[in-house]
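Input chain follows. Return structure tokens only.
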Amino acid sequence: ACLTSGLSALHKKKIKHQDMKPANVLLDANLLPVICDFGLSKVFDNNSKSVNVQGTRAYLPPEKLVGKVGRKGDIFSLGLVFLELGLLFFGQKSLKEEFARGFYVDITESLNDYLAKKFPMLNNSIMDDWNKRFQSLVRSMLDVAPENRPKASEVWGKAKEMVESLGAKPHCED
């Protein structure tokens, strides 16, 4: 949830990160995630989109390969970070070991099947509800069409609800 809060705050300040990936997330003294490495970041206005293909190849959103990228590219990349965190939570291997072409965007070709295989239901009502929310959120973030992806503030709201559904509160604010 704190990663979505941080990205939402960046987007509200009109900053695109453009290189969201696990290596660009640090943990502070309280083990809260902090987004770092703003070397490729850009300030944007409502109509601006990047034309240069920059960022880490594996985390590039599909639109980076064919044209301009808005802030929804950060949402796609963060969706991949969430997917990696989910795999760790469920005791699965990293995404890096699964894609021959080196692009995580490969999973969007059969995303529903991939999520069902990697994040099975556990016959535990609390965890299965959380799992369904997680899959729905990731599915929306990894939509191949940027216009269908949620805004960072919407992802933050959903992530906050997911944390609260487990009886906890996020340790961060937008």
